[in-house]
Recover the amino acids of this structure.
């Protein structure tokens, strides 16, 4: 059989037609917006390396939440900057901790906004690691599980709709699932940071969350950027332990991982367009080297195209404004 020479440009000449044959669509409803909540009052502190992103004290969250809601963004992901840090991350599971208070506040003023909480110990530990650190400097996996589960439970008790463990300790999804179930929260889903790589792209976040490790690095518990089969094993374990949504993080440099995870498991899949990915675009745009809007859009579209059902992104507000404009 012979085909006529296919002129692909026939489908590109008209804007309406281009819209009709478009395979991937970005939607405001895809976005999860990260929020940094800090202790104290009257605070709205700009993060130097992340233009447009702030730490808010709970009393200053009102306008931000209303804005997020008016932009139709369906979900926020909360990170806490606590007043005190210690070697047991106790401010992380304090009933009146920053994330717990922020959760209550948000659910009170905006009950329909989905509140997801990041569950990790690094922000609450004096040493900044994601788990309990032994005297010899190693991270004790199993001792960390109990603290993580305590933190997750306290978030849920405060009203969180979903918890998102980001620590990368082995077995934490199952452990958290078990505790939530036994406390009557079997309806609360878990979004697992399943394939989380040890990445230079987290740099600006560590300024934002004040969570840089005081010694060493996270390479003993976060993944080697060279590995994709290992990511599949991580995802599989988290699914077996009861994860409802699996996440790949970072996004841009790991689109192959995202695509493979989505194709192999067909699970609800989240991608985290992390701080460094956001900051690079902002910085280059500030210098006038790239067009922020088109680059941001292209990046988010590529993440969606690779298989993400939802995207955690600091660009959520900017992009929602753009998407709602038309
Ligand atoms: C906490 C955590 C990190 C990020 C999300 N949760 C930092 C890290 O693991 O070092 C990074 C998010 C970002 O860079 O935007 N463990």
């Amino acid at each position: 059989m012979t085909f006529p020479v296919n002129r692909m440009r026939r489908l590109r000449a008209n804007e309406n037609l281009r819209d009709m044959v478009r395979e991937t669509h970005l939607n405001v409803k895809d976005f999860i917006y990260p929020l940094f909540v800090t202790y104290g009052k009257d605070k709205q502190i700009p993060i130097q390396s992340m233009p447009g992103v702030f730490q808010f004290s709970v009393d200053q969250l009102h306008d931000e939440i209303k804005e997020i809601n008016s932009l139709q963004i369906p979900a926020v992901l909360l990170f806490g900057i606590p007043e005190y840090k210690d070697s047991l991350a106790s401010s992380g599971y304090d009933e009146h901790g920053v994330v717990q208070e922020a959760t209550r506040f948000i659910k009170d003023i905006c009950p329909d906004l989905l509140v997801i909480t990041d569950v990790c110990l690094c922000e609450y530990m004096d040493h900044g690691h994601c788990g309990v650190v032994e005297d010899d400097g190693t991270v004790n996996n199993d001792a960390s599980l109990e603290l993580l589960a305590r933190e997750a439970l306290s978030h849920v008790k405060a009203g969180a709709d979903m918890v998102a463990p980001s620590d990368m300790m082995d077995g934490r999804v199952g452990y958290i699932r078990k505790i939530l179930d036994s406390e009557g929260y079997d309806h609360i889903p878990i979004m697992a940071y399943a394939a989380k790589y040890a990445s230079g792209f987290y740099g600006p976040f560590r300024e934002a969350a004040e969570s840089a490790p005081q010694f060493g690095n996270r390479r003993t518990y976060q993944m080697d950027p060279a590995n994709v089969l290992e990511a599949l094993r991580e995802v599989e374990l988290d699914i077996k332990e009861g994860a409802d949504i699996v996440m790949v993080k970072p996004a841009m440099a790991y689109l192959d991982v995202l695509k493979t995870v989505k194709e192999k498991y067909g699970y609800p899949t989240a991608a985290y367009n992390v701080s460094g990915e956001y900051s690079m675009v902002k910085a280059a745009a500030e210098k006038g080297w790239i067009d922020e809007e088109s680059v941001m859009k292209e990046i988010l579209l590529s993440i969606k195209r690779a298989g993400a059902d939802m995207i955690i992104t600091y660009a959520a507000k900017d992009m929602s404004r753009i998407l709602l404009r038309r």
Q: What stands out?
A: Residues 118, 120, 122, 130, 166-167, 202, 205-206, 218, 274-275 surround PBG (CB under 6 Å). The chain has a mean pLDDT of 96. The radius of gyration is 20 Å. The CA atoms of residues 23 and 305 lie 8 Å apart.
